[in-house]
């Protein structure tokens, strides 16, 4: 039973808000360089994170990760081996790290060529990285020991 001070404080100030719970790393895994593997990962991410991450933040993260993984499959020069992923939940945010062995490529500074003037001349492709920039609160890149490392953070 709570002591008189805590009861008084609760009456006067209301009960204390629960401290945010850190769940730490949700999981680390590897995704093979295959489009179907990316879809399976996206489904697992939803099942794992939806209980603790607001749906809007989860959807933004899913789109961003899917876009970046697809870009690795389609465009990364001399990719070798699988793609390593790490997801972590912390108070107020969910973080994703994508690592793969390849030539350096920094998507955080990449700029798409300008589009055409009308819907008839707008090119297909080249809109994914700007979309990732828009969806994520943080989008960082580093290249260490031959590995491209992308860091994403979505506040929630």
Shape: globular
Strand ordering within the main sheet: 1-2-3-5-4
CATH class descriptor name? Alpha Beta
Oligomer: single chain
Ends apart, CA distance between termini: 35 Å
Q: What's the SSE blueprint?
A:
Elements: H1 4-13, E1 24-31, H2 35-49, H3 55-75, E2 80-90, E3 93-101, H4 128-135, E4 138-144, E5 147-155
Helix pairs in contact: 2-3, 3-4
Polypeptide structure, described:
By secondary structure, this protein is of the alpha+beta class. The protein has one domain: Heat Shock Protein 90 (2-Layer Sandwich), CATH 3.30.565.10. The chain has helices spanning 4-13, 35-49, 55-75, 128-135; strands at 24-31, 80-90, 93-101, 138-144, 147-155. Helix 2 runs antiparallel to helix 3 (55-75). It is globular, with a radius of gyration of 20 Å. The two termini are 35 Å apart. The model is unreliable at 15-22 (pLDDT under 50).
In short:
The chain contains four helices and five strands.
List keywords for this structure.
156 residues; alpha+beta; Heat Shock Protein 90; five-stranded antiparallel sheet; 4 helices; 28% strand; globular
């Amino acid at each position: 039973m709570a002591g008189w001070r805590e009861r008084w404080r609760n009456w006067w100030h209301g009960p204390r808000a629960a401290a945010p719970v850190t769940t730490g790393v949700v999981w680390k895994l590897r995704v093979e360089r295959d489009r179907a593997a990316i879809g399976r990962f996206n489904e697992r991410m939803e099942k794992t994170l939806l209980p603790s991450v607001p749906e809007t933040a989860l959807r933004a993260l899913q789109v961003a990760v899917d876009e970046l993984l697809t870009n690795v499959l389609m465009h990364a020069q001399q990719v070798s081996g699988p793609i390593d992923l790490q997801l972590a939940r912390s108070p107020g945010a969910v973080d994703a790290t994508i690592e793969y062995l390849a030539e350096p490529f920094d998507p955080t500074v990449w700029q798409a060529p300008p589009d055409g003037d009308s819907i008839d001349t707008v090119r297909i492709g080249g809109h994914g990285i700007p979309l990732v920039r828009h969806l994520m609160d943080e989008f960082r890149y580093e290249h260490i020991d031959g590995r491209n490392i992308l860091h994403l953070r979505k506040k929630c």
